[in-house]
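Weekly structure sync, notes
Attendees: PL (lead), two postdocs, one rotation student
Agenda item 3: pending single-chain targets
PL asked that the sequence for the first pending target be pasted directly into the notes so everyone works from the same version. It is reproduced below exactly as submitted, 222 residues in total.
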Amino acid sequence: MAISEWNIGYSVLSEPLRAWKIGDAGECIHFYGGFHGDEPEGVQLALTLKEYLLNNPDQFLQKTLIIVPIANPDGFKNKTRVNANKVDLNRNFPTKDWAKDWTSKAGQPKYYPGPKPGSEPEVQAIVDLIEKSRPRKIISFHSLNPHQINYDGPARELAHAMAKHNSYPITEDIGYPTPGSLGNYAGREKKIAVITYELPEKISPTQAWRESLEAILEAIQF
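Predicted structure, written out during the meeting:
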């Protein structure tokens, strides 16, 4: 079983975006955590999943699994939603609907999309990874109240299959506009099955793993 580790790129503050690849056959599936640095629940789930995949590679002989547990290392280190340029990475993807406008909360920009589409090095690294490896499915771990399995692109059946294992609500619309998001870029425009897996906020790593393992395994084998 082929296993490799490398940097797919670097953050604004030159922190590496570490990636692990398990397997080199069959369809490619991407997993991401930590687009928003103030959502540690998704990072912890991605890190736990990374260890599980590395310790059980023979379960996935006919797959190519790539996991980037911390897509926004500067934001994660500083516990901020945005990166070091104060950009919301999940509004910075080069989509047709990318918009200069953003929503503010308490006077602070929350969804600032950056000066132009794909301006941020973290997004550039992920776009390059997607273009090179051509995944058929992408699972991105976040946290939100209410928790949910949100889907974009051809992922409706996948979302329902995952939800059978934990009864998370399934949504096609997260409830507010998300121009420049990964879901819009990869799901709606690239026609990749994209799941935005929203854990409950403040869920413990142990409980998140307990609720999510079977759903994730379903996604891999689906």
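Discussion points:
- The first helix runs from residue 40 to 55.
- The chain has a mean pLDDT of 95.
Action: rotation student to compare against the earlier draft before next sync.
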